[in-house]
Amino acid sequence: MKPRHSAPDGDPNQRKWYVPEGTDLALFSAWLPAAMSSADLVPVPTSERLPSLGGAGREVAAPKKGVPLSQLLASVAQAVAQTFRSGVWTIVEVVETRARSGHVYLELSERSSDGSLLATARAIIWANVANRILPEFERATGASIAPGIKLLVRAKPNFKPQYGFSIEVDAIDPDYTLGDLEARKREIRARLQQEGIFDANKKLPPPWDFNAILVVAPQEAAGLGDFRVEANRLERFGICRFAYASSRFQGEGAAREIRDALLNALAHWGKSGNAPPDAVAIIRGGGAVNDLAWLNDYELAKTICCLGVPVLTGVGHERDSTIIDEVANTRFDTPSKVAAGIELVIKRRIDEAKAHFEFIAAQITRVGTGARALLDKGFTAVQSGALKQVAAARQTTFALVGELQLGAKLTVRDAKHESGVLMTDVGHNAYQLLAMAKREVPGVFSEIRGGACNVVKTARTLTTTRLEAIHDRTSLDVSRSRASIEQDLQTVALSARQQIASSRNAATAVFREVAGQGPERTLGRGFAIVLNELGQPVTSAADAKSMGELEIELKDGRVAVGVKRGL
């Protein structure tokens, strides 16, 4: 396409543009000046002779039908250069970045609200421009040029026949990128607030203590390493248990992976029969703003809001803030500060437990001292009562046994005396009868003998009967006395055994306490033992007054003392 000054009316200001015959004229309308239209393009007939560049009046052959590709593309390149002499501010999304020899090569795109692709283009930031605009952009936004970031760039279209269409970027507006990131957070925040769940996790009471924590973090991340330095120390001493779930934290689909890793880890935790974790910690190290922007996701934020476990976040650095930081129960600046916060709560509980233990120990000591005094007093009373009961039982038993023995002896003696008297009487009567019979007439000797025999038999029978009666009565009396004595002895022995057993049980407990203390410790508390000359304990003032000298055993030895009898 070339201009030719050939105005039929002789007006030298009128200019027409000529193109090869058969070319679609509408293709060039986009590059025409604003005052011209496609009607100003005049096809060159094949029979027309074009003036030669070699000199006036020379004619050349008419061009062939069609033009070379290079000529067409050169025309397009010229049109693009004339139309876009300066850059145009354009909204783009970065798909891919490459750096080579200081130059930055970009793949750009535009997508509709439903995610469908509308346009793509290649772009380049030359090394001298990149050295100037990229540091300023990163310093202003905290973000780096990476896939997924939206930019407002000043783009200058460039078309070259050998390489095709591309865009040269010579400026980037950081305010647009910051506004886009903030707008995304603002949209998610408003949606969660409208659903009434924005501060649901914040309203959960923070953990009173930490025993088990689920940690979601990128695998092998530097922030995770800082966290585990503290976490491993707590876990090594059995103070707190940590379970880890790994996920990507940047790139397309990272938020969904974090959500799936979190929910799957909690489901596995519940299936193992363990109680729910005390908290969930979501951590990652610092990074560019656009690296953290992947965490500004509605579904991930909603999952954290609806979680029944307090969520602790430690994402990035102090200046970084994401939507999950806003909805979490507790936000920390960095992963290491999350570990420090957990350790601080555990230390607070330990200090409280230590104070409570010391208070309980003091109360136990006070109660133990009082109980020991009561035991000492009770032991003394029980020991004294037991000794008195045993002495009384012994005296009663000895008295009863003596009375029973005396009664038995008296009964046997009386029976023996009565039997002797009867025998004497019987013998005396028998001799008298025998003498009388001898003096009587011999004729009645047989009668006398018979009568004597009868009398002797009768006397013998009577004596035997009386002896048996006396023996039976004596035996019965002795049996009754023995039974009564045995019953009394059993009653006394049973009562004594019961009393001794009760006293032994009561005294044993006290003996154990006293034995645990030992005589040395008893003497060490200020007590002393009073001994007589034989080294036996003296337990009453009366016994002490009856002695001339006494010894007092103290903690570190014995001291001899004299007794004043007038006291």
From TrEMBL:
Signal peptide: none annotated. Residues 69-172 form the OB-fold nucleic acid binding domain. Its EC number is 3.1.11.6. Keywords: Cytoplasm, Exonuclease, Hydrolase, Nuclease. One of its GO terms (biological process) is DNA catabolic process. The keyword Lyase does not apply. It comes from the Bacteria. Residues 197-560 form the Exonuclease VII large subunit C-terminal domain. One of its GO terms (molecular function) is exodeoxyribonuclease VII activity. GO terms for cellular component: exodeoxyribonuclease VII complex. NCBIfam families: xseA. This is Exodeoxyribonuclease VII large subunit. It comes from Caballeronia glebae.
